[in-house]
Amino acid sequence: MSSLAAVNSPRTDDVRELWYTRCPVPTASSVALSLGWLEKEFGTSGIRVNSLRDGDSDEVKNAHFHHRLKGLFREGGNIPPIWAKAQGQDTLVVALTWVDERQAIFVRADSNIRKLPDLRGRNVGLPLQVGGRVDFARAMSLHGIVSALILGGLRKSDVAFHDIVSEQTVLSNTTVHGRFHQPELDALLDGRVDAIYAKGAWAAGISTDPRLRTLVDIGAHPDPLVRINNGTPRPVTVDRDTAERRPDIVARYLATLLRAAQWARAHADEVVDIVAREVGREADDVRAGYGAALSTSFGLDLSPLRRQGLALQKNFLLEEGFITRDFDVDAWIDPRPLALARAEVGHD
Question: Do the Cβ atoms of 159 and 179 come closer than 8 Å?
Fold first, then answer.
């Protein structure tokens, strides 16, 4: 009998469907989904696997942020799940991934801002998304900007923040995420602000624009704790009820992601194509935005470094007012499903 079968007998009477969601970024989930492995894994047990992006209501789709849907697995940026937990949603972190990405501060090419201390007294663009959920775009940009200011020996009070307002969108299957930072870029190019933050393949794509200059790439900093932001680390979360009633299902889900991570190591070009579809950018932007190690970066673990990174991000969101209730990150993490999954896959 396999280690997963030993946890619970293979019953499906209480679970007929599961939900999944992932951010439009490089994730083990997107690799597994592109290969059809999640549907195959659970379809043999008569369990339907549904995508939030195909949900029939905004409330279902917005579970990507509020996590109020039972049987939902989420892999993606850490800001929404931290916010949901602080809002009282009873979720668990069952794994953490870490895919480094470009995190750049851009200025105009003709700017006299040549080094980070030159940001003193300048206008820095900061997205402001109007809506009822956490403004993860603002939180992410602010963290990147604050990290850059610290590297330059500056504080938040040394710059002037300029709000760039946009509407919060509903999760969908469209590729509008391929222009995620466009409002900030427009504000930079038309002179409303002097600097902006952008990340990932999008940042790599605009870095070739002759009108722009990269002031610093935080994502290239040698200290991983300096690189902490929405995508580093990325948690895999699930509601506590599902995890406690059916740990075998959670472990099977994670085992599928572990196998996808193993597959990715040997299929670098295919991984670039998968991620390009996810982020809505060209393959060259993906290679530049996530680096040569992308295909080897999908592993799941709960290492002390990743736990520390998640705690640091939670602390930042609390200090900056994006969440108003503190909680214990270590108590939020349940290592048992990942241990079962590793035993099943034979993963060290």
Answer: no
Tens of pLDDT, residues 42-55: 998 999 999 998 88
In terms of DSSP bridges, do strands 103-108 and 72-75 run parallel, antiparallel, or are they unpaired? unpaired
Write down the residue that tokens 């600097």 correspond to: 195
CATH 3.40.190.10 fits 3-99+231-345, yes or no: yes
* DSSP string for 3-48: HHHHHS-S--TT--EEEEEE-SS--HHHHHHHTTHHHHHHHTTT-E
Q: Quick: pLDDT tens for 230-253.
A: 999 999 999 999 999 999 999 999
Residue pLDDT, tens place only, 114-130: 999 999 999 999 999 98
**Across 171-186, average pLDDT:** 70
pLDDT of residue 171: 63
Q: Where are the alpha helices (DSSP H) in 53-152?
A: 58-61, 63-66, 79-86, 136-151
Q: What is the pLDDT of residue 132?
A: 80
* Helix H or strand E encompassing 126: strand 123-130
- The closest of 53, 94, 50 to 71, measured between CA atoms, is 50
Quickly tell me which residue has 């953490």 as its tokens: 96
Instruction: Say whether domain 103-220 belongs to CATH 3.40.630.30.
Output: no
CA pair distance 220, 300, nearest whole angstrom: 22
Q: Got the DSSP string for 92-120?
A: EEEEEE-----EEEEEETT-S--SGGGGT
* 260-276: burial string, b at 16+ Cβ within 10 Å, e else: bbbbbeeeeeebbebbb
pTM tops 0.70, yes or no: yes
- The larger pLDDT score, comparing residue 345 to residue 56, is at 345
Per-residue pLDDT, averaged over 88-111, amounts to: 98
Would you say the CATH fold of 103-220 matches that of 3-99+231-345? yes
Query: What residues does each domain of the chain span?
Result: 3-99+231-345, 103-220
